[in-house]
Every structure is written in C-alpha cells, then in structure tokens.
Design brief:
- The two termini are about 40 Å apart.
- With about 375 residues, the chain is of the alpha+beta class.
- The chain contains 9 helices and 17 strands.
- Helix 2 packs antiparallel against helix 3.
- A 4-stranded mixed β-sheet has the order 12-13-17-16.
Length: about 375
C-alpha cells in the first residue's frame, strides 16, 4: 500500500510552520497513543504520525521530502537519508545522480560504496510516567534487547585466530554486476554481493559465538534522565544506544517516547496546571480561606465574599516547569459553587429566615425560593474539565 502524504497525515498545509507541525503532531500522537486509544489500528496510526513528524520536523529531511517525496526516506536512496547527522546526503544534483541511483553507474557519476561503514538501526522504547513524575522529572534505568558487536570476534565474524579474506565473487567490491531488462533496454546494474553481503570480505571459519554475523543480541541498560516538564507523546533521542552498525559503522540511536498518565485531580496544558475547587454557597457569599492542593503541596487561597461560580484564581509559579524555558507555569483554580441536594429542617429554616430578611418569596407562581437558590448557584459538572 502506498504511503500517505506526510502533510496529509498530520493534517497541515505544505507551507505549515514548524509550530503548526509540532502542534498537529502533539494532538494526533495523543489521540492515537496505544495506551489511550484502544482501536485496532491506533498503533499503526500512531507510528504513521510519528514517522511523518520525524521527517517534517527536520528542516533538511523536510526539504528532501518536498523535492523527492517518500523516496527521500529510503536509506538506499542517493547514498542514504539522515544517517547519524539527520541530513540528506549523496543526492545533490542532476540526471547523473538519478541514473546512478537506479542503474548503479553510468553517466560518469560515482558508484555506491557497498562495503562502506553503515550506522545501525534506531530503536524505540516507551517509558510510562505518572502525572507528577512528568512534572518533576526523574532518572530511570531501562533495559532492552539490542544487537551488539560480538566480543569473541570483535565484530569480524571470523573464528578467533583467523581473519576474513577478500570475497572470491566480488573481489572486495561488495557488489556484483547484473544484467537486467529495463524500459531502456538491457543494462548492467549493480547488486549487493550474495556471498559477502556487501562487506567485501568472505568468512571461511565462522565465529562460534555469532556464527559469522559479527553481532549478537544482548540485554542492554541505560539510565534515562526524564526532563522536568515533559509531556505525553514527546520523545528523547539517546545517541548511540540503538543497534550495532555494519562494516564498522556506528551504533544507531534510541528514541525514548514518554507516555504520561492523566491525573484524577489536575489537568495540564504545557506548563499550566488547572484545578476545579468546589465550595458551598455560604463560603462563596461570605468569603473564606481554603487549602488548595498543588503539585508542589497545599497552599492557602483566599476566597473573597461574593465570589461567583466560574471565577478563576491564579497561583503563580505553582504549575509545571517550562521544558524549554526557565521557571514554572501557574496553577489556575476555577471555583464551582455546589448547591446542596438535601436540606434538613434547621437548614431550611435558616434559609427561610434569610429569604424573609432579603424580601424574597419562598413559594409563588414564579418558582420557589430554593429553586432560585439553585439557579443562582448553578453547578454544572461538565465545567470541571473546562
């Protein structure tokens, strides 16, 4: 199945800014996160969104994609895309490069070096964080399996005491010439040597540990420093923590993706934290001082007399750390006045006395006093998450 256009995947225009691309990615990665979305295809969509963002968030990769489309993400395209530098290498000009890419030579251009060192594959690891852990950060040691260089043969693939020899088929080139039929007629193309698999070396006596591959699967551990203020769906790149390269190439990278649990108490948007504070209408009418929970501990909040439902208060510096800045955000406290559903006789009598002093009629054609009290202090549970 053909890949969808990366801009279409993220739902942005081709001239979208970096901020627009980032916002679209954060929204979609949270929507399709496998830990949140249990639909059958959620994980595939999450990977598709991550792949699109990886390319479009990098200026060099995006420029290459705009010019060459999905072909630019093929590691065999024009000598490799990305590599360890995140750039677009080897495909810099003209028809000669295109001819070389598809037919392995000709037009006077350079041929691909099949036995050149190549970086290993990247890996991904998901760390699950509690709400507070994401706010304050932490250190966590993770363990995962990866391909590493064989210690017995030091990655050569040959039995200790022996050495690989020059490949008898490709004579060290790592590639062989193959005649193929194309729309342009019969042409000679290059293909990876099936004897040495592009290394240019042939192993006569294989290493007993890795059976000639030069690498083995081992459990690897690394300590990850989770940045304070990290958000759900964000990722951290750890250079050199991926899989071993080939032909002496460097290790790939490890991408740590953070999955943050929702809080039962707070909501969060970036460095800003939101909390809904329920109070009764006596506290709202007469004013009070209440202890309010924050991620930094309880603080006292003064509620002025006559406070209305929906009133917002700001607790400066009580939010989450700014991931790409200094200091903390704020905590926003939204007051919601709760109307009692059941009143005893003493409470009713007190309210009747209040109504009489206020000149209100308790019973009448325009509705009872208690109904109007409920209207005055309307409590809408849906406001809790606004």
């Amino acid at each position: 199945m053909a890949k969808k256009d990366y801009y279409e995947v993220l739902g942005v225009a081709k001239d979208a800014s970096d901020d627009e691309i980032k916002k679209a990615y954060r929204k979609l990665s949270k929507k399709f996160h496998p830990d949140i979305n249990k639909e059958a295809n959620a994980e595939d969509k999450f990977k598709e969104v991550a792949e699109a963002y990886e390319v479009l968030s990098d200026s060099q990769k995006r420029a290459a994609y705009d010019q060459y489309g999905h072909a630019s993400t093929d590691p065999n395209f024009g000598g490799g895309f990305g590599g360890g530098q995140g750039g677009f290498g080897g495909f810099t000009g003209g028809f000669d490069d295109i001819f070389d890419t598809f037919f392995g030579g000709g037009g006077g251009s350079r041929s691909r070096n099949y036995n050149a060192p190549r970086q290993g594959s990247d890996l991904q690891y998901r760390i699950h964080l509690k709400f507070e852990e994401a706010v304050f950060g932490k250190k966590e040691t993770i363990r995962y399996a990866r391909e590493e260089q064989c210690e017995t043969c030091d990655g050569s693939g040959a039995k200790p005491g022996t050495e690989p020899v020059t490949c008898s088929k490709c004579h060290g080139a790592g590639a062989v010439q193959v005649e193929r039929n194309t729309p342009f007629g019969r042409v000679m193309t290059q293909a990876v040597c099936d004897v040495c698999h592009g290394t240019g070396k042939e192993i006569i006596e294989k290493c007993p540990t890795c059976t000639g591959s030069g690498h083995v699967e081992k459990e690897h551990s690394v300590t990850v420093t989770v940045p304070a203020g990290v958000e759900d769906g964000q990722q951290l790149r750890l250079a050199g923590q991926g899989e071993v390269g080939s032909n002496g190439g460097p290790y790939g990278d490890l991408y740590v993706v953070f999955a943050v649990e929702e809080s039962d108490v707070f909501d969060r948007e970036g460095a800003e934290i939101f909390y809904v504070l329920p109070i009764n209408f006596v506290q709202a009418a007469m004013g009070t001082e209440i202890e309010v929970p924050t991620v930094h501990g309880n603080v006292k909040l003064k509620i002025p007399a006559g406070t209305q439902t929906g009133t917002n208060f700001r607790l400066k510096g009580k939010g989450a750390p700014r991931l790409r800045g200094s200091g903390n955000g704020d905590q926003h406290v939204k007051v919601t006045i709760v109307t009692p559903k059941h009143l005893n006789e003493k409470q009713k009598e007190a309210l009747r006395a209040f109504a009489e002093v206020s000149g209100d009629t308790i019973d009448g054609e325009d509705g009872g006093f208690f109904d109007r009290m409920k209207d005055a202090f309307n409590f809408d549970a849906k406001q809790k998450k606004k």
